[in-house]
Write a structure and sequence with these properties.
The protein is of the alpha/beta class. It has 2 domains: 18-163, Cytidine Deaminase, domain 2 (3-Layer(aba) Sandwich); 173-393, Dihydrofolate Reductase, subunit A, CATH 3.40.430.10. It has 13 helices and 16 strands. The chain has helices spanning 18-30, 67-72, 77-80, 101-106, 127-134, 147-160, 162-170, 200-212, 220-226, 260-264, 279-287, 308-317, 329-337, and strands at 43-47, 53-58, 84-89, 112-117, 138-141, 174-181, 186-189, 215-219, 242-246, 270-275, 294-298, 322-327, 343-348, 358-360, 377-384, 387-393. The strands form 3 sheets. Strands 11-10-9-8-12-6-13-16-15 form a 9-stranded mixed beta sheet, sandwiched between helices. The protein has a 5-stranded mixed beta sheet with strand order 2-1-3-4-5, sandwiched between helices. It has a two-stranded antiparallel ribbon with strand order 7-14. A hairpin with a 5-residue loop joins strand 1 (43-47) and strand 2. Helix 1 (18-30) packs parallel to helix 6 (147-160). The two termini are 14 Å apart.
């Protein structure tokens, strides 16, 4: 979940309802979006015995202290006596890069822990709650007596760690798609020119989104026309990212050293996806290269296009857990057509390009009846300068 909304930190002692506390915990969780993968975003809020706000915290970066630890670290045993902790995900039961949060909390004089979701990780999956109960601390899954509010909060809880949940439930890469179009749905001229459809505010937010996913994915057409760097250039985020290029026939490999990608990314962070059937030829090309990208050999469909399901499976085996598809039109359309997109980010600029000389990002998708239309679920909206963005799940 990108940080599309946030709540201010209350003053100490401010009375919060259970729903307000959980909403604040979700807001806190979103602060970790650029740095926690492959861990989930998690936020925590601590209320005193009278329901007054004490502190909050979030999981800041992979390998760092978890949200519960950050929320509790500056509070004394006396302040915590009878306290109620709200956390977006069940406290972890296992020891990994950090101690078990459930075992840490079990040693404190807490009265209750309310968590938003049961952790799907089999190393946790209910065990965190049992550790707390064994220590005499109440532990329960969040629910609101207001059905509409309960539904809204549970959607936000799922979104807060949607990639993590998808990884554990499906054992697949979570796929986001980001597109920028005119009001009439065009993403580029027929020549391939697309810079710039949206304004600088939208483009800055896209660099934030890049930091929220393990890798950016583009087709070879985007590389050929724009020769982009595809790195993260955000005023407050310093982070190296990974890039995936779909180049089924390996047409760009011989020009790799001339591409900006080769100069701004380490070869270990570049994944070049080519057809498995040309492996022998590609291996020869790579043997003669210095600093070659990582080659991913992918099965092909009838017609020669790469099998995108196999591509994602290969990337999952490479350790990638989330990918943002950025272009171009054919690549975006193919992922939509194969029903492989989990989340959409659709930016629209207040311009008209005309379909006569432009390209649509859905031009290969064929809907024969309105019953087959693709719905964007749980949509939310933001504006960036003069641009408009809608995001939701597919």
């Amino acid at each position: 979940m990108e940080r599309i909304w946030h709540l201010p930190t209350p003053e100490r002692g401010t009375k919060l309802s259970s729903s307000q506390a959980m909403k604040l915990a979700i807001s806190e969780a979103s602060k970790g979006a650029p740095r926690v993968s492959p861990n989930p975003m998690v936020g925590a809020v601590v209320l005193d015995a009278q329901g007054g706000f004490l502190s909050c915290g979030y999981h800041e970066f992979y390998g760092g202290p978890h949200a519960e630890v950050n929320a509790l670290k500056n509070l004394s045993p006396e302040e915590l006596r009878g306290a109620h902790v709200f956390v977006t995900l069940e406290p972890c039961a296992h020891e990994g890069k950090t101690p078990s949060c459930a075992k840490t909390m079990a040693k404190l004089p807490l009265k209750k822990v309310t968590f938003g979701l049961i952790d799907p990780n089999p190393l946790v999956a209910g065990q965190g709650a049992e550790i707390l109960r064994a220590a005499g601390i109440e532990a329960e899954v969040f629910s609101s007596p207001n059905a509409e509010e309960d539904h809204d909060i549970k959607i936000k809880l799922e979104e807060a760690c949607e990639a993590f949940l998808w990884n554990f439930r499906q054992k697949k890469v979570f796929v986001a798609l980001k597109m920028a179009s005119s009001l009439d749905g065009q993403v580029a001229l027929r020549s391939g020119e697309s810079q710039w459809i949206t304004g600088p505010e939208s483009r800055e937010y896209v660099h934030y989104l890049r930091a929220c996913y393990d890798a950016i994915l583009v087709g070879k057409g985007t590389i050929e026309f724009d020769n982009p760097s595809l790195n993260i250039r955000h005023p407050t985020i310093e982070k190296k990212n990974k890039v995936i290029v779909i180049d089924a026939e390996a047409e760009l490999l011989s020009r790799f050293s001339d591409l900006k990608l080769s100069k701004v990314h380490a070869s270990a962070d570049l994944f070049w996806c080519v057809a498995a059937e040309i492996k022998e030829r590609v291996d020869k090309v790579v043997a003669e290269m210095s600093g070659a990208p990582q080659i991913v050999y992918v099965k092909t469909n009838v017609g020669g296009d790469l099998d995108l399901q196999d591509l994602l499976a290969q990337l999952y085996r490479q350790g990638l857990r989330s990918v943002m598809v950025e272009g171009g039109a054919m690549t975006a359309s193919s992922f939509i057509d194969d029903r492989l997109v989990n989340r959409l980010y659709m930016f629209q600029a207040p311009i008209i390009m005309g379909s006569g000389g432009s390209r649509s990002w859905t031009e290969t998708i064929r809907i024969s009846s309105m019953n087959e239309k693709i719905h964007v679920k749980n949509p939310r909206y933001l504006t960036f300068g003069n641009d408009f963005m809608i995001t939701g799940t597919l």
